[in-house]
Hints:
single chain; alpha+beta; Glutaredoxin; 4-stranded mixed sheet; 41% helix; globular
Amino acid sequence: MKDIKVQGIGCANCKNTVALIEQVANAKGIQVTLQKLEEPQDIIAYGLMRTPGVVVDGKVVHAGGIPSRESIEGWLVD
């Protein structure tokens, strides 16, 4: 099971990123724990300067803009 955190202040891109990750995980039949972190101190703790940021199993894998479906698939099967 992958632990995924989407970090951002609640903008449309952040919400769309959460939805896209859920869609890809469901389509692939992969269980994930998905958290949405909106507090500035949480975002800063990972050194993110652009949002949305995506952290998978404690590692920053994406920052800024909505990630591609292919990128998400790679994070989930890695």
